[in-house]
TrEMBL record:
Family listed: Belongs to the short-chain dehydrogenases/reductases (SDR) family.
One matching Pfam family: adh_short_C2
InterPro entries: NAD(P)-bd_dom_sf, Sc_DH/Rdtase_CS, SDR_fam
Protein name: Gluconate 5-dehydrogenase
Native species: uncultured marine bacterium HF10_25F10
Molecular function as annotated in GO: oxidoreductase activity, acting on the CH-OH group of donors, NAD or NADP as acceptor
Length: 254
């Protein structure tokens, strides 16, 4: 008989930091990790939304308002994070931006904002917090990839470039830090109803076409992210690193 480790998915004793925790998949991720036993620091610009998320919990949640579009804001956030519950050993990088601009309309500022928020901030937050994970000999980093990590979408060149970079960054982070017990993976969501995809779901015909493109035959629901995220953040994924787990109903399989 194979002996299965008890509490394989428990996050008791761990501290998680989740960016983009004020709404959408980031908020869902922060809630899932808190419900699994972690002390969770939710990071986002909107203080009121973070406070409402904290109020829904049972004492193991904290709000840390920060503007991640600014390099100095990232550094200040990382410095403050470890003073709340202790140094985070789980990082979930869910914050991001998609300006949905045709290639001809993108300005240098638009490009830089997209690359920094989607690619730069996750790296430098990780770089700042990895030393404490090394001391512990355990860590989990989950980046957010996208369908556009491997597919080209209309008006998606800046976003797609950033998310293609997230895929390679995930592999490079795994190469750099997995030997210290810090596993890095990415989740690639399909179409989920969030603020970032509001324009997509507002077009019923487009939403229906996206659903038909999946193998399962529907678009994502927020709860569909729970299991994959918990797996990648827990001891269940001890031998999984450098991978992109597409949570897309089979969209990219067709």
């Amino acid at each position: 008989m194979v002996e299965v480790q008890q509490n394989l998915f428990s996050l008791d004793g761990h501290v998680a930091l989740v960016t983009g925790a004020s709404s959408g998949l980031g908020r869902r991720a922060a809630t899932v990790l808190a419900d699994a036993g972690a002390c969770v620091i939710g990071v986002a610009r909107r203080d009121d939304a973070l406070k409402s998320w904290v109020a829904e919990g049972a004492g193991n949640r904290a709000a840390l308002p920060a503007d991640l579009s600014d390099e100095a804001g990232v550094a200040a956030m990382c410095e403050a994070a470890s003073g709340i519950f202790g140094a985070p050993d789980i990082l979930v990088h869910a914050a991001g931006v998609n300006l949905r601009q045709p290639a001809e309309d993108i300005t240098p500022g638009d490009w830089q904002l997209t690359q920094w928020l989607n690619l730069g901030a996750p790296f430098f937050i990780s770089q700042a917090l990895v030393p404490a994970m090394k001391e512990r000999g355990w860590g989990r980093i989950v980046n957010f990839a996208s369908l556009q990590t491997t597919r080209a979408f209309p008006s998606g060149i800046a976003y797609g470039a950033s998310k293609g970079g997230v895929g390679q960054m995930t592999r490079a982070m795994a190469e750099a830090w997995s030997g210290d017990g810090i596993n890095t993976n990415a989740i690639g969501p399909g179409f989920f109803p969030t603020e970032l995809t509001a324009a997509v779901f507002a077009d019923e015909a487009r939403a229906a076409r996206n659903a038909a493109q999946t193998c399962i035959g529907r678009n994502g629901r927020l709860e569909d992210i729970d299991g994959p995220l918990l797996f990648l953040c827990s001891d269940a994924a001890v031998y999984v690193t450098g991978q992109i787990l597409m949570v897309d109903g089979g969209f990219t399989a067709k």
